[in-house]
Structures are given as C-alpha cells and as structure tokens.
C-alpha cells in the first residue's frame, strides 16, 4: 500500500461500517479514533522506509468478549456493561496489530456465548448480509455479519461448541477453529474453559492463514495455551493436496442434514476425491457430553450473577444456565471421563486418514426469531440444535476450517474440514485447493 | 422431550428444591423453560452415563501441574 494509503483504507472501512451497519447490526463499538491513529502511525512508518507486516492496513474487528483497552468487555451481556473498561488489549489483538492490522471495533454476539443464533435481546440480532431477515448464526454473529457484509475483511470470534463455524456457515465465509490450546485466549471473557477457543473469520483462505500465523505462539497469560512454537502455514497453502487421505463423515453427520447441507458436503467431497465414508464413533454421545459439560460449567461461571441479577440476563440464556446449575456433579464427571475415551477413539481415525469432511450446520440460515428446526423428520428446538455437527469436534479440540459453499438459491452453507490436532496446515491446504478450484468462496452478497 | 406426568412432577420438585438450595430465585414464568432445558440436559447426561467406562477411566482435564 502506498504512503498515506493506510489512512484512506481505514476511512473507507469506517464509512462502510457507518452505512452498512445500520442494517447488519454487527458492531457494538467502533474504535474510529484509535483506527485513524494506528493508520497514521503505519503511514509514517511506511514513509520512513520501515518494513510493513503481512497484515499492514487490514481493518479488523473482534467479538465483544475480547478485550479492547478502554472498553468494557460486554460478552454480549447487559450485566458486563457495569464492568470497568479493559486495562489492556487481549493477546490476539496485540498480535494482529503487531503485524499491521488496524482494529476498527467490537462486534455483536449472543449473550455470554451461550448461543448459536446471533440473536441478542440487549443489543438486537446480528443480521445476515445475504438476507437480513435471517440469522447470522452465533455466538460470533457480528463477526460473521461484518466479514460477510464486507465491513471488514477479518474478524475474531470464539468457538466453544461451534460459535465460529456456525456463523461462517450461515454467512458464507471462511472460519478457523484451531486446535484447542493453539491460540491464546488471554484477555477474553470465558464461557467453558475446557472447550473455549478463539480464531479468525475471513473472506479467503489466505487471509485466514495470514491472521492465524500472526496470532500463534505460547502465552503465559493463558494456562491452556500450548507451549508450542509457531508453525506457520501461509507459505504451505500452495503445496496442494496430493497424497492427503481424505474421508467424509457418515452416520451421525448425515442424519438430520438438509438437502442443501448434503449437496454442499458431497460437492466438496467430490472435488477432493473423498469417496471413503467413515463413522465417527459415538459422535451423538460426544455431542451429549459436550452439552452436559457446557450447561454445568457455564452455569458455574455465572452462578453469582444468576443469584444477584437474573432479570438482567437474556431470558433464552438465563433459563438454560439455571437448568445447568441444577445438573448433578456426578453426571458431569461422567461426561469428562467419556471425553477422554472419545478423544482416543477419534485420534485413532487419523492413523488412516489426514482429514475428514462434515457438514457445518444442518441447514442454511434460519429466519431471525425462528424457534424450531426440522431435524431428521422431527421439529426440535432450534437454539441448542444448530450445533449438532460442530459440537462433537470441538469437544476434543480438533482443528477445523469451515469453508463456504455458495448455493444456487442464494444462501450459502458451510462444510467442515477436520484435521488431526496441530495440523491446521492440512485443513487450510484443503481449503485453499477448494477455493482455487472455485468449489468454495465468499463472494459479497448482492445488494 | 415428552415427559410423563410423574417425570414432570419430579423435575418441578427438583427445580424448586435445587434453586432454593443454590440461592437462586426464579419467577414462575421462567419455570417451564427451565424444566425443558433441565429435562434435555438430563437426557443427554443419561446417554453419556449409559456408556460403559472402566473404573480406572481418567477424565479429560485441562489442568497441568
């Protein structure tokens, strides 16, 4: 970018946010002054001949459970408005800015991340850029809407049970949920610590990979962050997929999927030559165990707030949390034991394959306000069931890239590319291959 | 989830006692949703509990010393 180009780029992004966020409701705060200052500093550095980072001048925004110095970290809640402003940026914000990215704001989300819809009774629903009557998915709803709508090319979200992959699917963009422990969560508001991940959403595989590379590395501020050196992937995207053994998940991962979800999955599988179908052992039970742990540990996190300010919660979240508080500990302990068994069973699959494919969501984006979902011929509550295909995978921390498949009807849907732990490179190479072949992509929605 | 009348009564009693013991006050209009979610969670927990695990099974903890 030319000298003074960063300031102009940021001005354009801020203008787009001002215009388009009125209909998308993706942002809860816009950090315009900070963004202009960062851009001016970058312009000055460029004028002085300093080298620029790989994300120089790229505007980005973060789910509002990620700390931004000077702003209260809302986590989608009304209650956290009363918190003091964050004293410092989250680690991932600092790492992105260190390579030149420019923070432009904080993004809407489902309250306390206990959400797959992107709806929020306090701040309004995030709206899907492909059809604003429809959900973005959640809980990183603003992250999905902001990137899909072209307000920013890059956003950060969090994913406990699917909250990056669901909005990526509904909004038709790329999302990366890395291996558990790969990216630092320091400076983010938690939900279920043994399941929480942070990760990027973007319009291309390459942007996803560049951001991911910039954010890798140990962080003593997050006890779960792995002591692994960074393993950059961007330069490996072009390696292709020759020699990779790819399968598609059957059984549980096909039952309940809509025709659109199956068509997307089958199209991606055909493009990758993934003819082999594998069974993920006990996937339904894994989803059940993730559900139980989430309900219980999420409730434990919020127990004091549930006692003191229950009326200030989003009712859809509060009622689930109160129910979670009542779950007997013996049942939760059993779920944690099952988790170990399941992890072993899933890891053995990777003796014979390098990656497998699964739907990201059972359907395209539902209408905002929709309460039920047709699943396997039954009407079931929508909220807890959007994540049926994401939960069994994050439950054991596998890295997943959600890739967007544009459908003829206009609404996109995602497919999950799932790799072995610490092999984000495999999933991203497959994503790049599909994108280059035109099978997946994130075109801007037609106005 | 289709509960029998007996299960519904058990859940209602459990919610009343549990929320009281945990110091949670709930409004009457919240009750049905809490019962629905608790019933679903317990059904999931039963499915997990039905899986045979050895007594020596270790939980998947994230704590490392």
Beta-strand proportion of chain B: under 5%
What is Rg of chain B? 16 Å
Outline the biggest β-sheet of chain B.
none
Coarse morphology of chain A: globular
Give the N-terminus to C-terminus distance of chain B in angstroms: 42 Å
Name the biggest interface: A-B, 43 and 33 residues
Quaternary structure? heterodimer
Number of helices of chain B: 2
Q: Span between N and C termini of chain A?
A: 28 Å
Low-confidence stretches of chain B: none
How large is the count of helical segments of chain A? 13
Strand order of the largest sheet of chain A: 1-3-2-6-8-7-14-15-11-9-10
Structure description:
The complex is a heterodimer of chains A (447) and B (65). Chain A is built from 13 helices and 15 strands. Chain A has 447 residues and is of the alpha/beta class. Chain A has a single domain, classed as Amidase signature (AS) domain (Amidase signature (AS) enzymes, Alpha-Beta Complex). The longest helix of chain A has 26 residues. Chain A is globular, with a radius of gyration of 20 Å. Chain B has 65 residues and is an all-alpha fold. Chain B has a domain of 45 residues. Chain B is extended and about 45 Å long. At the A-B interface, α8, α9 and α10 of A face α1 and α2 of B.
């Amino acid at each position: 970018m030319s000298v003074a180009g960063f300031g102009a780029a940021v001005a354009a992004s801020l203008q787009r946010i001002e215009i388009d966020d009125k209909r998308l409701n993706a942002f809860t705060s816009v950090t315009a002054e900070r963004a202009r200052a960062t851009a001016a500093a970058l312009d000055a550095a460029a004028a002085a001949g300093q080298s620029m980072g790989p994300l120089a001048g790229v505007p980005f925004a973060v789910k509002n459970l990620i700390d931004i110095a000077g702003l209260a970290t809302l986590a989608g809640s009304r209650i956290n408005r009363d918190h003091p402003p964050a004293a410092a940026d989250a680690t991932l914000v600092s790492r992105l800015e260190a390579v030149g990215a420019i923070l432009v704001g904080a993004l809407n989300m489902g309250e306390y991340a206990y959400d797959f819809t992107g709806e929020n009774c306090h701040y309004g629903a995030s709206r899907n850029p492909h059809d604003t009557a429809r959900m973005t998915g959640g809980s990183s709803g603003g992250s999905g809407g902001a990137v899909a709508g072209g307000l920013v090319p890059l956003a950060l979200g969090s994913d406990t049970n699917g909250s990056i992959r669901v909005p990526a699917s509904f909004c038709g963009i790329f999302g990366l949920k890395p291996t558990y422990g790969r990216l630092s969560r320091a400076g983010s508001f938690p939900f279920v610590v043994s399941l929480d991940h942070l990760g990027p959403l973007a319009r291309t595989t390459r942007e996803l990979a560049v951001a991911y590379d910039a954010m890798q590395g140990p962080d003593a501020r997050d006890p779960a962050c792995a002591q692994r050196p960074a393993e950059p992937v961007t330069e490996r995207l072009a390696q292709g997929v020759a020699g990779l053994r790819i399968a598609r998940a059957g059984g549980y991962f096909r039952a309940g999927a809509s025709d659109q979800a199956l068509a997307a999955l089958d199209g991606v599988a055909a493009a990758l030559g993934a003819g082999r179908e594998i069974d993920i052992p006990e996937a339904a039970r894994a989803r059940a165990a993730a559900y139980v742990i989430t309900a219980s540990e999420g409730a434990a996190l919020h127990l004091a707030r549930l006692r003191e300010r229950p009326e200030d919660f989003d009712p859809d979240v509060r009622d689930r949390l109160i129910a979670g508080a009542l779950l007997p500990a013996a049942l939760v302990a059993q779920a944690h034991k099952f988790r170990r068994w399941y992890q072993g069973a899933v890891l053995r699959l990777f003796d014979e394959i390098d990656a497998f494919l699964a739907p990201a969501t059972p359907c395209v984006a539902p209408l905002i306000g929709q309460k039920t979902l047709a699943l396997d011929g039954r009407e079931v509550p929508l909220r807890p069931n959007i994540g049926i295909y994401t939960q069994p995978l994050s439950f054991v921390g596998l890295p997943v890239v959600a890739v967007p498949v544009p459908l003829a009807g206009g609404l996109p849907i995602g497919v999950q590319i799932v790799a072995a732990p610490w092999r984000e490179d495999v999933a991203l190479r497959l994503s790049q291959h599909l994108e280059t072949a035109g099978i997946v992509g994130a075109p801007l929605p037609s106005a | 989830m289709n509960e029998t009348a007996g299960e519904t009564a058990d859940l209602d009693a459990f919610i009343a006692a549990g929320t009281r013991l945990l110091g949670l006050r709930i409004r009457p209009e919240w009750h049905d949703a809490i019962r629905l979610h608790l019933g679903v969670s317990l059904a999931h927990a039963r499915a997990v509990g039905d899986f045979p695990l050895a007594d020596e099974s270790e939980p998947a903890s994230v704590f490392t010393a």
